[in-house]
Amino acid sequence: MIREAVVWVLEGNASARAFYEKNNYCPDGKEKIFKRWNKREIRYIKTAFM
Q1: Which long-range contacts (CB under 8 A, 24 or more apart) does 14-17 make?
Q2: Residue 41's closest CA among 3, 15, 7?
């Protein structure tokens, strides 16, 4: 069984991005604009095989 965890991180939040990258999350190329603050978010994904 394959499970995926997905998080959205603000592009400018370097500490959050480093945290997720350290914990084996990878950006998958998906982006969106967080409309409330008009900031870009990057989607990170982690795949686990169970």
Answers
A1: 17/42, 17/44
A2: 7
DSSP code at position 33: E
What are 2-47's pLDDT values in tens digits? 889 999 999 999 999 999 999 999 999 999 999 999 999 999 999 9
pTM assigned to the model: 0.86
Within the chain, residue ranges assigned H as helices are 14-22
Token digits of residue 4? 């995926």
Tokens 């914990």 sit on residue: 23
CA 7 remoteness from chain centre: 4
Structure tokens at 45: 């994904």
